[in-house]
Amino acid sequence: xxxxxxxxxxxxxxxxxxxxxxxxxxxxxxxxxxxxxxxxxxxxxxxxxxxxxxxxxxxxxxxxxxxxxxxxxxxxxxxxxxxxxxxxxxxxxxxxxxxxxxxxxxxxxxxxxxxxxxxxxxxxxxxxxxxxxxxxxxxxxxxxxxxxxxxxxxxxxxxxxxxxxxxxxxxxxxxxxxxxxxxxxxxxxxxxxxxxxxxxxxxxxxxxxxxxxxxxxxxxxxxxxxxxxxxxxxxxxxxxxxxxxxxxxxxxxxxxxxxxxxxxxxxxxxxxxxxxxxxxxxxxxxxxxxxxxxxxxxxxxxxxxxxxxxxxxxxxxxxxxxxxxxxxxxxxxxxxxxxxxxxxxxxxxxxxxxxxxxxxxxxxxxxxx
Length: 369
Fold this sequence. Notes:
Layout (H helix, E strand, L loop, with lengths): L1 H28 L4 H9 L6 H6 L6 H10 L15 H11 L5 H13 L13 H36 L4 H15 L2 H12 L23 H39 L2 H8 L4 H19 L1 H9 L4 H6 L5 H11 L2 H29 L11
Helix pairs in contact: 1-16, 7-10, 7-13, 7-16, 8-10, 9-10, 10-12, 11-12, 12-16, 13-16, 15-16
């Protein structure tokens, strides 16, 4: 197993390089880059960009008025740059690092990212690593607890549904699971706010943040209560669809295994149902559940929590990555992509290791990676 883990770790390097190279190449052809964003804002074509520049470490806002008035009038490769002095455009390119060739910029990016040096945000005047570290508690809270809750409920429920297939319990729980799967998570989140967060009925839960304003004054057990009090509604909304999917997947997986010949043989040997279920069926049926864990875990960090973060005013990595893409804040975009990709590869490796713990008959070292 050690040789397999080492090979997988070594394969992460070209995989990460391929992901970053593909993304970097696409970015080179994407319109509306940071230089265009600044130009649009300074010429009155951007929305709230002036605030973003003035608060983000770009030193060109004051001097831009002179540059616009001077009316350079020269041709420019940037849309909307007519009337701006070319020297000012050159300063912008140097500010964002676009004065260097693309291959040189990519090599520098890879060299810096190898040491987790993500540089500084274009528009926020803060190191990207500090920005990510600031948003990380929200994403970890949502992703980790949502995954644990959905798996903790879905697996036992799916097993019981498989054992009691066709019973009244199976029928009415299937109805609930189907409804839960059909309801979009963000719509359920709005319903929870209306019902329990001061919308129209009860005011039992807070609407924003991970903790209350008086967090520092709380005792340790009050902090735990306050933390989960703030997470109750977001986690309920997030776990709805994941809970439904994992439950049905678990049930179908166990049903397939229960019908196989080795189960009949185990019963013929005199084993009771519990011994058959957890001694033989469980480790085989759980393999497909484990296979879906990396995707579920990563989606909980980004795609699954994006709307939930927005609705409940939780500023996490999902929302950070999304807004950075819209504003073309490339250091933040590439840093979050790098972290998500690295997390996905590591979780996938952990998933494979878990395979061997559940079923020791699986030996990855005898297979090609």
